[in-house]
Amino acid sequence: MLRGFYTAASGMISQQRQQEALSNNITNAQTPGYKADQPALRAFPELLMHQMGNHHVPTERGLNFPAQQPIGSLNTGAYVQENIPDHGQGDVRETGVFTDMALVNGDLPDETGGLFYTVQNADGEERYTRNGNFTVDGEGFLVTTQGYYVLDEAGTPIQTDGMEFTVTEDGMLQTPGENIPLGIAYTDNVHDLAKEGDGLFNGEADAVPAGATYTVQQGALEQSNVDAAESMTQMMEAYRLFETNQRVLKAYDESMGKAVSEIARLG
Known about the structure:
cell projection, Flagellar hook-basal body protein, cilium
């Protein structure tokens, strides 16, 4: 019976964590470049159950040999192994703001490949983002809304001198006196990158390979790829599963209480 307690409790915990991930997705449904998290639920390792018994051999001495009869497998609960970001392309919306840039995927050489802007976080380390909601700070540098420097192809913060600029489709930022290639990075497996908050990803990425194509659209933003309606449906399903496990846990608790009280009276 104690195994039933743990199984039901693990189900409640896994559904609670799924609710947290879905709630975070809905919260960021309007965040440019946000990639929805998809909780991956796994079962704890299966146990192969056997019935223990004896096999009688009809001899003069009446020999008995131990025997095992397979019953079947038994799972002992579920858990959320990890939250896997969905790196699918979000819709592109025009904003008319010249500092906004949408990075639109073209043909990529790897099915799991992905393109990102390169930025510099508060510790001076390179990070990657799909959020092209940029602005220009008081010193004339192109930065994210959190104040992180946007880097060029050489890994240097982009200085615009506070002037308006144009961005070509191949990612060339053009000011009156200079052409600066945006630092667009490529990874052949987006699942090797880890979310770090503020729309940033941490990991290894390289220069864009020759076989990859993309378009930078100035005055537009890539929207979040969260499907709010689908996320709400999934939240309702997770809530119902949580309630189901809760009722199972309550039933086990009542059975345990009844067994303890009746055994105590018989004693």
